[in-house]
Protein: Phospho-2-dehydro-3-deoxyheptonate aldolase
Organism: Streptomyces hazeniae
Amino acid sequence: MHPLPTPADLSTAHSLPAATEKAVAQHRETVADVLAGRDPRLLAIVGPCSVHDPEAALEYADLLAPAARRLADDLVVVFRAYLEKPRTVAGWTGLLTSPRLDGKSDLATGLRVGRSFLTEAAATGLPLAYEFVDPALSAYVADTVTWGAIGARTVASQPHRHLASWLPMPIGMKNCVSGRLDTAVAAIQAAAHQHTLPAVSPDGRLTMLHSTGNPDTHLVLRGGPTPNYDRASVAQARAALAAAGLPERIVVDASHGNSGKDHNRQPAVVADVAAQISDGDPALVGVMIESYLADGRQDIAADIARRDLSVTDACLGWSRTEPLLESLALAARRRRARP
Ligand SMILES: O=C[C@H](O)[C@H](O)COP(=O)(O)O
Ligand SMILES: C=C(OP(=O)(O)O)C(=O)O
């Protein structure tokens, strides 16, 4: 047994400045406004599949932030700052748990390095996206996060649904790896309810929480064995949400099952979704792109990895990402201009 620092220890050592805390609260409201249709812009959740080199990921954020400001009339750009990775079977589980990429777990270091990264990333002014993989670790990171995801491998899990009912930010529920939508639809319903759940308190004690239910959950279409970003799939997803009495709001993930994990296919997915948005589909509230400094991916070899290349799923390089953001901004503008 190795005792870990408490969430309070780490949020004291790596605190969010008051101005950043305020900005996170504002970003959460903005995203909720986009989801509710009160803000006509489009969410663009963009960034690496995983952060393995914090300095390099901050360099990426330094490219993304000016583009986000330039396109802010049409897009709400959110930076994927993912520090935990769910694995289909086994593999590197992310910076938070295994910060040295050496196959060994070192949560004490990972929590410190990860928290430090998140506070710096939040200070760039970009809203942060984060997948909550281990509910026990959420207390260390949640205050920095604007948009959360419950992933395709955990969306059926009751602890994750209950966590989502308590987290104070909009949460995207991904369809299952199998492509099924009903589990994500049930997750959205479950997270809207009040629950009692065990959680780690700031002082590190296991505590019972009473959640009020999260009104800002929504569906993320990430494909399965076949893609589900096309018009027919989006219509089917809208119908499933409507049949469950849920608001029709959908984020499309251009990566994962929608690109067959081939980053070169992400531009075609984005082009298709941009056309649907230009044609006025109001349910399409956002798009996710896996993007990093360089194009492609690498295996971690002998604990060494290129800093600018993804060590998990292949990403689109920055130079191929910026034009996609432009095209999404244009689509949002066209939708807004429709009578
Ligand atoms: O997003 C990244 C991966 O798709 C996810 O972590 C699963 O990866 P795996 O199937 O290689 O384990
Ligand atoms: C693991 C991810 O996605 P999914 O849950 O859709 O596989 C991810 O977005 O990093």
